[in-house]
């Protein structure tokens, strides 16, 4: 039995914070503590309360005055795109054809996949992200490399071998049958092994033939507990081309609906330019719209209407994500800084409690995993981030005038990045300070 006691300023959300004064939405302890046993949080509260439950000789790590939060969750990211990030001058379809597809052909080589998977998860941990929902490449070996690395670190990650059988170079194409067979193999090898989750992953309607979409639908039927991830309504040229390829569908969302791909475990990256009918269809099915602000700004795709999606009569379930390599930063703090600006451009605000709810509990709820990750509640898995709002000189100076928790969180979001992440725990074990950093 391994036990660890963390002491610090603990913050965990109970529900969506309606306003900046909605203090019942979160639990905050100025001198808080978490007792971790065998990878789980077994006690949470004030230090005085928790310390009473601790056996003799338990190791204590005192993180005061830093903030202890649930580890961040990134709900849409492409691990094979670490060498695509920061590619200049294209909108979505050109960006895929010019940069992304050629890069992803390299993942035929299992050795390359293993190297990038290792560096990718290093980067995630360095930025305080303890769970991701990742696209691998079309190659089964890329998914196997990802899961091997994730399992070795005991991280809870969701990932899938991409299915794509047309409109891309041969080196990144499968067939309806091989896409189905390889996905099944990855599921049987990895789903439920330790903390690993496999997602059914048709890239998007443009790169999947109707035959492949049928196979994806068949997998969703066979494995109803698995997540399904794809892209939806990111860019106007993409939407027009999709509607040409699927003329029988009412609209882009209807393409996926026709193959049975909508549902409570379905994640639709971007979902920017939705009609009211499409938003209703997502809402009615419990599907999740994934907001990727840095990517949407970088590729000039459009502005995700977060507050309207939340407040419409049929609200959408929303997750937030980096979308690296279309996204421009691995940090969920940087992501929410850009999210704030995207929302501001539409005349709305996202208050800092709502931001931090979103990247912890909110994303866990969107993944239907809130009983396991995204909070500091007793019984959940001990994935934790420790943040220091004074880690950077400019932040330290600004902290001199910060008077409230809300102000501190907003400063962390506006100026923070990997430097503000002091420590990360994965399954209760220190993961950032223990990291062997070698870009080999
Ligand atoms: Zn994406």
The hetero molecules present are: zinc ion
Characterize the main sheet: 9 strands, parallel
Regions with little confidence, pLDDT below 50 for 5+ residues: none
The general outline is globular
Oligomer: single chain
The helix/strand class is alpha/beta
Strand content: 15-25%
Strand elements, count: 16
Secondary structure: helix percent: 25-40%
Distance between the termini: 34 Å
Number of distinct helices: 15
Radius of gyration: 21 Å
* Average pLDDT score: 97
Labels describing this entry:
440 residues, alpha/beta, nine-stranded parallel beta sheet, seven-stranded mixed beta sheet, binds zinc ion
Describe the structure.
The protein has 440 residues and is an alpha/beta fold. The two termini are 34 Å apart. Strands 5, 6, 7, 8, 9, 10, 11, 12 and 13 form a 9-stranded parallel β-sheet that branches. The protein is globular and about 65 Å long. The chain contains 15 helices and 16 strands. The mean pLDDT is 97.
